[in-house]
Structure formats: structure tokens, C-alpha cells
Amino acid sequence: MERPFALIVEDDRDIVALFRHVLDLAGYQTEIVLHGKAAVEYLATTTPDIVLLDLNLPGVSGGEILRMMRADERLKSVPVVVITAHVNLVETLTEKPQLVLIKPVNIEQMTNLIQRICPAEKAVESLPWDLLTGVYSRSFFMARLNYALERAKQLPQNKFAVLYLDLGQSVKLEFLFGSEYNKRVLKDAAGLLKTILRPTDTIARIGEGVFAILIEDISNPDAPIMIASRIQGKIRKYLARKENELQVRANVGVALCGGEYDTIDDILRAADDALSLAKSDRRKMLQLLREQSMNVV
Q: How many Å apart are CA 134 and CA 130, to the nearest integer?
């Protein structure tokens, strides 16, 4: 059976990556256009099953595209999901979309979208977030990492880093203090990461007590090291609370990356190796990272 087709009209690559991933999991084929004129040209010959449409586009605005679609017999019944950071723009629309998502798109909004486009049995697995912590899921992280690698191969000056944070003994925490305590530690750790990292950085929970972080567009080779130190310091300070009698260790491994990697599996192995080295000899891990940065960046 032919897969349904979705058109994403959006010029923000992070938003594009998020929605493309969700739509792919929901079983859609996706096509991406970055500005309004290209969207008009595309819609002149193609009838998608759903359109995700940014209102603030270069060239032709999203509002104009929506009006054009509603005036076209072929396109007028196509569901349109509007994406915007400007609520006032929605109020000026003469044609109403099926759904409005306000940037930054949160879990509740994305869940609403998924429930509309997915069969019930696929809705939960299509979520790009980890339901416990609110950070991204492993599957979305992999999709985002693959995009970063492809981009680095095309543009060698684009460097990125993958950080692994391991809250060691997470299973032991649950055994000693109960599952609710362990869940609270994971939620709090995710919250701390959000205060340290940029909104454009990708944070994901990829294991029981393991978080992965993707930092893109690195101009300073020392930046990942400094970020790792800040993360480790804040997490360790949190874990050293008086009520936490078990001294859980927090370790961070860092892999500085560019287009020299063949696959994302190679990158993940490098990050995992760096984490293992950080657990045994953090100074050696940092030394190797600095040596690597001289060649990569």
C-alpha cells in the first residue's frame, strides 16, 4: 500500500527535523520546501495528504498559501497544520487550518498532532519525546545525529559533538530508594541539562540512566569540553544532596565529530569509548579530546 504524503513548508531546519521524524514514524513520505514560492510551485502539480505550514516564510507567506489552497478545488480539503511563533498572525488568517502549533512546539502540542495523523496503535511509538523526562527519544536523537553527519559531509566546516552522560547505578538507586525516587532523579537531571544547554542542542534519554547530547555548529573546539565540565559539575552537585546517601557518580564522555565519520554508529562508539575512558581516567579522556580537536576543528 502506498504511503500517505506530507509536505513540510518550513525554513527552520530544527523544526523540519522534528516533524520529518514524527511523520516518518507515522508512516508518511515527506517532502520539504524552505520558502513560500517553492511551496506554491510544488502545490501546483502535487496534492499532498497533509501540509505542515509555517506562516512566516520568505517570498510568499503561509497565510497566502493557505488562502490559495482553500480556493483550489483540488487542494481545498487537504488538512493544513499551521506552525508559527506569532499568535497574532493566526488571528489574521481568513482561512482556518485544521490545527495550530505555537513555537516552541511542546509535548502536548506534538501529542495532539500525532493523535490526529496516526492510528491509535502507532501514536505512542511515534512520539519524539521520552515520556518520563520530556527530553527527546532515542529514535529522534538518531535521526538528528544522522542529519548532522550528512550536513558535515556536505559542509566540512560544520563540526558537532556528541556527549554521553551516565548517571551510574541508576538501577541500584531504584532498588534502594524505589522507582519513584529513581524517576525523580532522571527528571531532575533532564531539567538541569536544559538549563545548561542551548535550545538548539538535542538532549535525549537513550538508556536507563544515560543521556545523549548533540551539540551542533561548533566554532570553538574547547566548547564541548567546557560544556561537559559544567554538566558534570551541576549533576554531581545535585547527586551529592544530603538526602542522597548513595554517592552516585556522574560521568560525561565527549566525541568531537565532523564528516570524517562513515556512519552514526561510528560516532556512537566513539562517544561510548570516551565515556568508558572518562569513568576510568577523566584527565586522559580530556587530553585525547584536545588532541582530536586540533585535527577535527
A: 5
- Longest Cα pair distance anywhere in the chain, in angstroms? 67
- Residues 294 and 297: their CA atoms lie apart, in Å, by 6
Number of independent structural domains in the chain: 2
Q: Enter the C-alpha cell of residue 248.
A: 552516585
Q: Give the three cell numbers for residue 24.
A: 516518518
Looking at the DSSP bridge assignments, the partners of residue 167 are 250
Domain boundary among 63, 98, 123: 123
What is the C-alpha separation between 206 and 116, in angstroms, rounded?
Answer: 27
Indicate whether 240 pLDDT > 80: no
4 DSSP assignment: P
- Tell me: do 211 and 110 sit in the same domain: no
Tell me the C-alpha distance between 183 and 85, whole Å: 32
Please check whether residue 131 lies inside any domain of the structure: no
173 shares its domain with 95: no
pLDDT level of residue 276 (50, 70, 90 thresholds)? confident
What pLDDT score does 209 carry?
84
pLDDT in tens, 188-211: 889 999 889 887 788 999 988 899
For helices 179-196 and 223-239, the axis angle rounded to 10 degrees is 150
